[in-house]
Amino acid sequence: MIAAAQAAGTLVVVDAKRGDIGSTMDAYAEAFLRDGSPLAGDALTVSPYLGFGSLAPAVDLALSSGRGLFVLCLTSNKEGHEVQHARTLTAEGWPSGPSVAAAMAAHAAALNADADPMGSIGLVVGTTVGDAAERTGTDLTTVNGPLLAPGVGAQGGGPAELTAVFGTARGQVLASSSRGVLRAGPDVASLRRAADEAVTDARAALRD
After folding, report:
1. Catalytically annotated residue among 5, 10, 17, 94
2. d(CA 151, CA 41)
3. Tens of pLDDT along 31-45?
4. Is the distance from CB of 152 to CB of 176 less than 8 angstroms?
5. 17 catalytic residue (yes or no)
6. Stated pTM of the model
7. Domain ranges in the chain?
8. What's the CATH fold of domain 69-114+123-208?
9. What angle do CA 180, 48, 161 make, to 5 degrees?
């Protein structure tokens, strides 16, 4: 499926959400980011919740192979706040540092700092997170990378939510509608109409 999509000229984000340590993370990176691998798309979603540094093999291979990463930051599932909104420790050991989500965004921003127009290390930020980015101190405009926005369609996100969540960062957003399009199937013409409608709505919401 990945090869067929790429042969048709479509960019492919592999939503595998991989994250581990050491040799296991090395293996994931090789499987999903190495040239010639049947699982390698154009970008990969990864989980940083064993520490952002654990993603180093994926970061290094993505950058060297011309691919991208989308790092889970503020996800669209209702349970995500338990981890992502938690506060990191200050230098003195108190839990009043930046939120975990803000820390992930800061790491991505550091990797993208010198990129123009933007870097290859993006974030996953759900369309349904409401004001979570503001409340967690996550300045999405400074990430200087793409923002993958799931939650459009079946999860309730739409043009208004895209505008509200991303604000001035909406020019960096790649909106994702999966079930919202697929539920129009299996008729091919119906699927195409649903996809076209999703594209039109996203463009209207994300246009600066």
Report:
1. 17
2. 21
3. 999 999 999 999 999
4. yes
5. yes
6. 0.91
7. 1-66, 69-114+123-208
8. TIM Barrel (3.20.20)
9. 35
